Amino acid sequence: MRAVMFERFGQVPEVVEVPDPAPTEDGVVVRVEATGLCRSDWHGWMGHDPDIRVPHVPGHELAGEVVAAGALVRNWEPGDRVTVPFVSACGRCAMCAQGDQQVCERQEQPGFTYWGSFAEYVLLHHADVNLVALPATMAYGTAASLGCRFATAFRAVVVQGRVRPGEWVAVHGCGGVGLSAVMIAVACGARVVAIDVSPEALVLAGELGAAVCLNAPTVEAIRDATGGGAHVSLDALGSPVTMAASVRCLRRRGRHVQVGLLPLGDPEVPLGLVLAHELEILGSHGMAAHAYPPMMAMIEAGTLRPDRLITSTIELAAAPTALSTMGTVPGVTVITPQI
């Protein structure tokens, strides 16, 4: 099969021929019909993820069709249309037993701990725990954006952030995760302040319903726009600057949700402010497969439109350049390996 591979961190990948994967006993092989280009893929390519060993095939947001299943797989068979969370949970640890597969103690991640979906086929482990069935009406390109950015944003806004109608929500960084968070927060009845340095990204945020769009992470400007600070603020980019701004722009007893992947190292958190204002600091690490139904129902009803986030669709041959220039195209880029 064809796959996008890099042999050194930071070196532009190439499309090469590699052996087709075979299913493990409890896994499946999926023919990749669409896979998203995510900032996490860029972090991995740059060497920011300690789990990656070169040579490596990136890609973790995907949708496609099952073509082979292992002997222990009970719920899936060839021909099934599926997507999958980016966390491949084991299904057996204490966290999985209580339904928190997104923080599985023995988690794997396609595109990070093993080869991913920038390829014609991908192996997915523990299929009965992790696969999500796709409605016949959902396009593969739309479904590909769900496994990381959209599902992560959904849980960050709805579950971790506990966003309520009428609240102010600040979204720092309007890439795929941030734009997803804007759309979801608006659907929850919140008023959204979108912050980004890209005018094009802010135009998209406004089209998705953001009430205020700011072109710099200025704490004072956010406080002014929200009448004293955001109730909930999300760092959807992942940098020390945006993380600190997200915490500092909160009103008293506000909630910060860290969504964007931070580079290696622990940035300084303004803990004095956290203590004095009784702020909450929360993380959001994807969403378990069993938690998808409410999100899928909102998509099927048209309340959420992840397809509106897709601004570019490219073939596999264009993926190496797209990965190495990540961030230059606003919105979500989807790769179609079968074309």
From TrEMBL:
PROSITE patterns: ADH_ZINC (PS00059)
Cofactor (UniProt): Zn(2+)
Alphabetical UniProt keywords: Metal-binding, Oxidoreductase, Zinc
Gene3D superfamilies attached to this UniProt entry: Medium-chain alcohol dehydrogenases, catalytic domain (3.90.180.10)
Transmembrane segments: none
Domain of life where this protein originates: Bacteria
Molecular function terms from GO: oxidoreductase activity; zinc ion binding
Annotated ranges, domain Enoyl reductase (ER): 10-335
Family label: Belongs to the zinc-containing alcohol dehydrogenase family.
Protein name: Alcohol dehydrogenase
